[in-house]
Design brief:
heterotrimer; A mainly alpha; B mainly alpha; C alpha/beta; B: mainly alpha; MetI-like fold; C: alpha/beta; Rossmann fold; 4-stranded antiparallel beta sheet; 11 helices
């Protein structure tokens, strides 16, 4: 178990390094770095300062060394526009993104697991159809459009929640729902199909043959096994989450990282964008690490095969 | 010689049979999604003849005309007009072209690359495999929309730049699935037999493994079209899709955003178009998966 | 338990009457079990023999009332257990039978245990449910059950997971799950098919010992006539969803009545006997979606007559519980 976790941590660190390197390669290959990093911002010495910071007069491997060194010290650089350290900007915005994400995830889990389980247990019943419709709609609706439609209905026509911004707990409802529905859709289908597989299995028949009641069969014997593939796929779900949050924050003018990132792209504040990409990537990798460890806890077979 | 040509015949027959069964199987496809997909294709291919108006001609006199069922609506602009008086219906019809062209090109490029990488990764094992897998993980760990945003903004908005930046993400998803499939097929007896008689690796991949991952690839490609349409629409909503004046659904929704309290139709209809397009592709893909590849309920 | 020398005078424990279990599919109705009759007496070992797809497993699942829903349904018949018809009681009463009076062992020990719970937890389940024991008392019973199936150092093994057991050991654990509550009937659905021959012999010996000790009745589902000869008092031969012949085990080996039974016996290789070629039954078992009219075996039967093609032969009783469905025996 410990060696397994160790191996996964090592792989996660390797992944982080890959991402950092990829960002470096991208930033050096799409144009003149000094230009990209300072574009259109008329500080007198901006260009010279950036060249010095990035070590642009030195060979590429040396620049890479400087870059990695700064990253290791947690130095993501400063905003080109107002000189505020990027770590500070991101730390300010992180809570809003994080709480919205948690809200949406809570919503998605609270709906997807019961819907998926009931859909599988009562196949082709009205609840199964409801789950299917929710899932298909959630996967097909563009989140930005869903957000706008919800604003029209609930904020403009009925005026029961604020249309945008982060004001109180009610302001979480629309963006959380918008972000959560898409995530829920994938999870419902996953829970349902893996539940169907498990309900067909011999050990479930065996449990019934022991006289175990249907509720315990589903909640004890089937659910825990059915959640294993769900956890495996949750890494991909997270990808959808990050994409979704950029768009949804934009629609609802949510003061999170996604909004900052889009603003920075538009205003060509490249250091901030670079920082966001690295933070998102790192976040993704660490969540996946966490998921893998959780996986090992749920599925006892993992510990011994080391896979 | 004789045996080589007979295998040749057997192989072509397999593909021919597969094609025939696919075409005849289409009759059992779910009706409504198939019809919607047909309409969508017709929009994409013959849009300029189907659209009632020129989608980019501006007529400020007609701006903000509501749909026909509202007071003040006109029969010539059934779904109403936008801020510049352009016909929404025509723009929705022509807008399908960008979505379809872009997603199909990306499927061909990224999907093709992903299949090749997945086959190599799954078949070669060890070093090459773990190298490709690390690459795939990193690409999947990148926030797609954000990276695309940065890239397109830096190199300029165009069809090619969107295509160029989204293809690797798609390739990574294909690589992952095809690799998994290849890993299990590699262990099957017919591959072992082929190895024993000295078939070269590329031929094993081409003749024995590729036909067996084919169904999965078809299903995955179908389901990914829907995903790509959504992704493209999101980019275009954020202002980094294919540039105007060519109508794109995402951009149209973005354009309607400021007028949600006065002219909801500008944002509503292009969004519905996306919804129906993606919904029918997903339903169709689901049906394909159930028929071609029933083991993969999880795709 | 009653103390008697032969099994044929003992009271009837299970009486299956005209059981029909059908699969309702889009392409038609698949008659997996189509009018099965047989009895199991107390302490008796009854074999259920037939080719794959002849309906043996579905008969077992029907007895447990665990046919795969919603595709399959028991459409007709009675399953009398100690005189009580199991098909007429409701689901919660049926649960009182499962795992307490009737236990089951399935074919594949790899898949019949839940991979995410410890062995102890899974063996404990029927004990908690049916014997209403908890804590140390229940654990004691788990250890006893594991000892009864001869699992070494059960104190350590209970904390382990199924994947840490070998195939033979797992099948013993599955048997322990079933036998911990001292059931009256054990339904064993090809429990040794996936085991090595030596492990298989150990397992068979183990079940026989337990059976002797507790007087448990066993239904052995198998296609291995060797196991039947070794383990069973009575044999029921199944073909296309029906039992075509039922007889005591010595009788069936000496004097099989049904041509299908003869054919089955002829296709077993006999050690030392030299034959030019091993006998093989011509043709294929019928498609259960379209069973031929008349006797379902006639297309493959060497002695088929005209009447066989049109009418299903009734049961000809041959003394005791024995019977055969064949027009030849009728004459």
């Amino acid at each position: 178990m410990l060696s397994y976790i160790g191996l996964r941590i090592l792989q996660a660190l390797l992944g982080l390094w890959f991402i950092a390197t990829l960002v470096f390669i991208l930033s050096r290959s799409i144009g003149d770095p000094a230009e990209i990093f300072t574009a259109r911002h008329g500080h007198v010495h901006a260009r010279e300062m950036m060249e010095e910071r990035l070590g642009l007069d030195k060979p590429l491997y040396h620049q890479y060394g400087i870059y990695v060194g700064q990253l290791l010290r947690g130095d993501l650089g400063k905003s080109v526009r107002n000189g505020i350290p990027i770590t500070k900007i991101l730390m300010e915005r992180l809570p809003a993104t994080f709480t919205l994400g948690l809200f949406a995830l809570g919503f998605a889990i609270a709906f997807s697991i019961p819907l998926g389980v009931l859909g599988a247990v009562y196949r082709d019943s009205p609840i199964d159809w409801f789950a299917k419709v929710m899932a298909f709609l959630g996967q097909a609706m563009p989140p930005f459009w869903l957000g706008i439609m919800l604003i029209i209905l609930f904020a403009v026509v009925w005026d029961i929640v604020p249309p945008a911004g982060k004001t109180g707990w009610t302001s979480y409802i629309l963006p959380g729902f918008t972000l959560g529905w898409g995530v829920m859709a994938g999870m419902v289908r996953l829970v349902r199909s893996s539940m169907l597989d498990v309900l067909d299995s011999d050990y479930v028949t065996m449990a019934r043959a022991k006289g175990v009641g249907e509720i315990v069969v589903v909640s004890k014997h089937a659910l825990r096994n059915a959640l294993i593939p769900v956890i495996t796929y949750s890494g991909l779900v997270l990808g959808a989450f990050m994409n979704g949050s950029v768009v949804v924050e934009q629609v609802f003018a949510w003061p999170g990282i996604g909004t900052v990132a889009v603003q920075s792209v538009v205003s060509r504040d490249f250091p901030i964008v670079q920082g966001v990409v690295i933070v998102f990537g790192a976040f993704f990798i660490f969540i996946n690490l966490f998921v893998d460890i959780l996986y090992a806890v749920i599925d006892p077979r993992i510990k011994y095969t080391g896979q | 010689m004789a045996s080589a040509s007979s295998t040749q015949i057997v192989m072509t027959n397999v593909w021919k049979l597969r094609l025939i069964s696919m075409v005849s199987g289409l009759k059992r496809a779910p009706k409504i999604p198939t019809v919607i997909l047909g309409i969508l294709l017709a929009f994409g291919l013959f849009g300029q003849w189907l659209a009632p108006h020129d989608p980019i001609s501006i007529d400020l006199a007609k701006s903000f005309t509501p749909p026909v069922w509202h007071e003040g609506g006109s029969a010539s602009n059934i779904l109403g007009t936008d801020k510049l008086g352009r016909d929404i219906l025509s723009r929705v019809i022509i807008g399908s072209r960008v979505s379809l062209a872009l997603s199909l090109t990306i499927i061909a490029l990224g999907g093709g690359a992903g299949v090749i990488l997945g086959l190599i990764s799954g078949y070669s094992g060890r070093k090459v495999d773990s190298l490709i897998q690390r690459g795939v993980e990193v690409i999947l760990a990148m926030p797609t929309i954000l990276v695309a945003l940065v890239f397109v903004f830096t190199v300029g908005r165009s069809f090619e730049s969107v295509m160029f930046i989204l293809s690797p993400f798609l390739a990574a998803r294909f690589t992952r699935i095809v690799r998994g499939e290849t890993l299990s097929i590699r262990e099957r007896d017919f591959v072992a037999v082929a190895k024993v008689i000295g078939t070269p690796s590329w031929m094993i991949l081409l003749r024995h493994i590729l036909p067996n991952v084919f169904n999965t690839v078809i299903v995955l490609a179908t389901l990914e079209v829907g995903h790509l349409i959504l992704l493209e629409a999101s980019l275009s909503f954020l202002g980094v899709g294919v540039p105007p004046p060519h109508p794109a659904w995402g951009l149209m929704v973005a354009g309607g955003r400021e007028f949600i309290s006065s002219a909801y139709w500008i944002a509503l209809f292009p969004g519905l178009a996306i919804l129906f397009a993606v919904l029918s592709i997903n339903l169709f893909g689901d049906w394909l998966r159930d028929t071609l590849d029933p083991r993969r309920r999880q795709l | 338990m009653t103390e008697m020398s032969t099994t044929k005078d003992r009271p009837i424990l299970l009486d299956v009457k005209d059981l029909k279990t059908y699969f309702f599919q889009r392409r038609g109705v698949l008659k997996a079990v189509d009018g099965v009759n047989f009895t199991v007496r107390a302490g008796e070992s009854v074999g259920l023999v037939g080719e794959s797809g002849s309906g043996k497993s579905m008969t077992c699942l029907s007895i447990m009332r665990l046919v795969p829903k919603p595709a399959a349904r028991i459409v007709e018949g009675q399953i009398l257990f100690n005189g009580q018809d199991l098909l007429s009681i409701d689901e919660s009463d049926m649960r009182e039978y499962r795992g307490s009076k009737i236990a089951m062992v399935m074919q594949d020990p790899q898949t019949s245990m839940n991979p995410v719970f410890t062995v102890g937890n899974q063996v404990e389940e029927p004990i908690k449910l049916h014997l209403k024991e908890r804590g140390a008392q229940a654990m004691q019973r788990v250890l006893d059950a594991l000892r009864a199936v001869r699992i070494p150092s059960p104190e350590d093994r209970v904390k382990q997971y199924p994947h840490q057991f070998s195939g033979g050991m797992r099948q013993r654990v599955v048997a322990a799950m079933g036998l911990a509550t001292s059931p009256e009937l054990l339904v064993a659905d090809e429990p040794t098919t996936s085991l090595d021959v030596t492990i298989q012999a150990q397992f068979l010996g183990l079940i026989r010992d337990i059976q002797k000790e507790h007087g448990t009745s066993v239904i052995w589902v198998t296609h291995d006539l060797g196991i039947v000869a070794q383990m069973c008092d009575r044999v029921n031969v199944m073909y296309a969803g029906r039992i075509v012949e039922s007889a005591e085990v010595q009788k069936i080996y000496k004097d099989p009545q049904h041509p299908y039974t003869k054919a089955l016996l002829d296709s077993v290789p006999v050690m030392g006997a030299r034959r030019p070629r091993l006998y093989q039954i011509d043709g294929q078992p019928p498609d259960l979606r379209s069973i031929p009219t008349g006797c379902s075996f006639w297309p493959r039967c060497p002695a088929a007559m005209d009447i066989c093609k049109t009418e299903y032969p009734p049961a000809t009783h041959l003394g005791g519980d024995d019977f055969v469905h064949c027009w030849l025996a009728e004459k």
